[in-house]
Amino acid sequence: MPTAVKIKTSSSSTKQLIIESPTIPLEEKASCHFVANYCLIPHSGGMRGFLDFLIPLLKVRHHLPHLRHAFEACAVASLNNAISHKDEYDKLALANYTQALSTTATALRNPAMMKDDATLAAVYLLCLFETITARSVGTVAWGSHIRGLLLLIRARGSSQLQTKSGLDLFVTCRTQGVGSTSLFRHFSVSAPNLALQIVRAMSAGIQLDVGIEVPSKLVYHEPVLHAQELSLVVCKLKKDATDLLSKPPTADNMSLLRKLVHRCKAMDQQLIEWTHSLPESYSWKTVAWEYRVPRGDYSTAEVYPGCIDIYKNVWAASLLNNMRACRIVASSIMVRCVALLTWPNDYRTTIEYAAVTKLWGEEMGDIMASVPYLLGWFNNRMDLLENSVLSGYGCGDNNAAKTLPGLLLIWPLSAMEAHDYTTDAQRAWIRGRLKYIGMELGVKSAIEKPKPSATFRKRPANQGILKVSQ
Fold first, then answer.
1. pLDDT given at position 196
2. Residue 263 — very low, low, confident or very high, per pLDDT cuts 50/70/90?
3. Confidence band of 387 (pLDDT split at 50, 70, 90)
């Protein structure tokens, strides 16, 4: 608010001098908000950041209109969703997005600029804009941007993995799939698919085209790349299961289903081995327990009754949650196959089902125990951090709830919400956390997303027995 100050003049008359408070330009305010909420700085112990490449890239390439407009579209949309809620900001974000589309199309017609880091970053930001805003036309634009990312990654080839910025961009594009591509059910499954669609493929059984082959030595050196390769295998399992379970239960198909069960078991073992191979920086521990639900309302509770875990970095917690979700998906695929193989007997009496229910309970419990850490519960309980530290971002106060962890939580929480094994109380709590991510942190796709289902239901014998509802 302007401050009124009375001053004396030579004529002894009194006038009012209005001293205006300094006004921060909207673009600067939005940029700082975005960097403070999305740009995770690399952590000690070899932990990578997220979108941290944007900060140096914008400094040296800010003159490029497609990168500038794409960034400003995301920044203004994020600020408006989380804080401002103003129509004029919404219009400004959309105007920047429209300009980014036009200038990116121009950049793509330039052979040299097409392979530039700035162009891939701009297209990624266009995808992120759709995730942040969840507009009604977003599914159409999302598919277009994914196809653009696919073409760009293919055109850049394996050489993009030889530079830090190129590798960071590649990892970020794939991680975005783990974060939000499952939210758009109506994305055309006939369109070319990118590794960025990992989760979308898990939900719909889509065969993925990863664009380029990542060198094995790089895969096993980078936990995130190894995790993404395993995720792609889970997608392939889901695709094969979806195809087989839609066919008549002939002897040949039953044989293929038995092999698929063994593949799922082998996949689960690989996921376990990946967890055991992680460096110490990925470790976590329980620091508190919660037994109460305020007012008995699970939908508004910050913590689900049980243990509360702390991690050394947002990236570690998010990556582990994604792989926990992969274990849930892979084991659910196995149960679907076992159900058909044992029909008309009840699949819930099988050894496999007994084993996976234990797995589901443990993995879901670990995901829920990580949510307080990721959504800022510790910010007001710093004494519980002990020797741990909160993750650092590009600017702003690190002791505040951040948007990035919420974005990366959407996939594992959605996988749990849709699962048949999830209890009503857990589902109510999960929906409350997704609503918080959408309304308070500003990632609208958390609440506007369709609801894929992992509910097992019976089908006529000549068509198989299980189906994932869509």
1. 34
2. very high
3. low
Cβ-in-10-Å burial (0-12, 13-18, 19+) of 4 comes to exposed
Residue with tokens 């234990």: 358
What is the 3-class SS of 196-243, one letter each residue? HHHHHHHHHCCCCCCCCCCCHHHHHHCHHHHHHHHHHHHHHHHHHHHH
If you average pLDDT over each of 131-135, 158-162, 168-172, which comes out highest? 131-135
Contacts 24+ apart (CB under 8 A), 59-65: 61/117, 61/118, 64/107, 64/118, 64/122, 65/99, 65/103
For residue 218, what pLDDT is reported?
64
**Angle subtended by helix axes 424-439 and 403-418, to nearest 10:** 150
Q: Residue 200 pLDDT > 60, yes or no?
A: no
Convert the pLDDT of each residue in 278-310 to its tens digit: 998 899 999 999 999 988 899 999 999 999 999
The pLDDT confidence band at residue 239, using thresholds 50, 70 and 90, is confident
Tokens of 210: 């990863």
Interatomic CA distance for residues 240 and 255, integer angstroms:
13
Single out the residue of 81, 448, 47, 450 nearest to residue 222, CA to CA.
47
Q: Which pLDDT value is given to residue 433? A: 97
Neighbours of 161 (CB within 10 A): 18
Q: What is the mean pLDDT of residues 326-341?
A: 92
d(CA 122, CA 140): 18
| Amino acid, res. 125 | L
Asked whether the predicted pLDDT for residue 394 surpasses 60, the reply is yes
Handedness of CA 342, 346, 352, 353 (dihedral sign): positive
Interhelix angle 138-156/164-180, rounded to 10 degrees, is: 150
Instruction: Read off φ and ψ for residue 397, nearest 5 degrees.
Output: -85, 120
Dihedral of alpha carbons 167, 237, 317, 29, sign? positive
CA separation for the pair 34, 465 (Å, rounded): 47
Contact 284, 311 (CB under 8 A): yes
Predicted model pTM: 0.82
Residue length, the chain?
Answer: 470
Query: How wide is the angle at C-alpha 183 spanned by C-alphas 333 and 460, nearest 5°?
Result: 40
Give the span between the Cα atoms of 406 and 90, in whole angstroms: 21
140 burial via Cβ count (<10 Å: 0-12, 13-18, 19+): middle
* CA angle (57 as vertex; 321, 24 as ends), nearest 5: 90
SS3 139: helix
